[in-house]
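Many groups now describe folds with learned vocabularies. In that spirit, our science desk offers one protein's residues alongside their backbone shape tokens.
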Amino acid sequence: MFAKANHCGVQRLPYSTQASPLELDDGVTDVHALTAEKKTKKRYDKFKSVTKKTVDGKKKVYNALTQKTKKVKPTTVSEYNQLIIYTVMEDRVNKAILYLREMERSGLKPDILTYTMIINEYSKQSDMIRARKWVTRMLKNGVEPDAYIYTSLIDGYMREANLDNAEAMFRIMMKKKIKPTLVTYNILMHHSVRQLNMESALKFWGNLLEAGLKSDVYTFAIILHGLGDEGRVDEAWRVFKTMEQEKVDVNEVVATTLMGMHVQQHDNEYAIQLFNQFFTSETGRKPLPVTDHTRNVLLNAVVGQADSETINRYYELYKNTQIDKNAPISPLFVGANVYTYTTFMRAFLRRDNLPMVSQVYADMVARHIQPSLVTYSTLMLAHAYVPDPESCVRILNELKKGGVELNAVVYTIVMRAWAKAGKWEKVKSTYEMMKQDNIQPTKLTMEVLRYGGSKSGET
């Protein structure tokens, strides 16, 4: 990732971080979204699904109350809960709280489901102060937390990288003899992988099995992703074999994860073979649905083995598909989205084509596409190659001001930029800042630190 390159006289690349906080584009997002939804799915299943149009005109299915033409004031806890579910799933938690208070004024007592929805929503927002306040209110009203509530709190604390409080919630669960669910363990594993702590993820997997729970497809997807990130491909395939032996059906997340780990190992040809195996009818099996993430991984594989000129042609084709509404659907592209733009940026960066990195980024911003953390990391890496560490630092600081959840990669890129510029003191100060921000260093971080130390004569 930090291959050597010599560039002289390259102009500064444009960047902007004025948009709202971003999500990581690291491939784990798919697993997390699917895992998080399972926490309260069983409780939501009894309500009828409805389809609503979002602001941009797209249809979205809500597992909640069907709106009626004539508004009728709810008279039971169940009816209020249906309204609360609907508003929460539309990201209107304040409106949901108004319904809860109206319920109380009507002489009705909120039940465990009512509190679960509110606490879960605040935990998803990493607003743990409000989440805990609602737990306190729930206890005051004589409602005891269950596994769903504790799982939501664990998820919230893990989202803000507060491992101590997450573990404290887990210990309280065990002390009260509330059995963690499969989703509890999946969330612990998921966040461990996101924090690049595969050792903890494997430990939680062992705990899951010791508790007598059976791994589901999301459990395996999380483990496979973590092993793939660490380049432990042989171990990942052994885990996949275990998955097959336990007769857990492969889904699109698992298949895409297997493709992704081979792309990371630059085994692009085999990644393409896996796409044909799982996502086409070439092997005679029913093809899995192709997700946006699948297309992105496939595009990475295709451009990964192409030269700069060929990548240019693919990029022009991609731009044409956005202009021409009648263009045939390609398995590589899906509309104007951050993943595809970022993939092209990274492809041009690997070919040392910094002007095209800048151009792709400018095209993306012109189409009002929100950059992801990986997009900014790619920009920072381009600056690190120049080297232009000051620009890397500016991007890092703006991301922090924007409340973006950062990881070790962005700090390591800044350290790499300072090391390449020969500023060893800056390398050390960036590392100290990383520790102060409670970001765990990776193997690559320590390699950059040792490299800088050897160049400066320190040990």
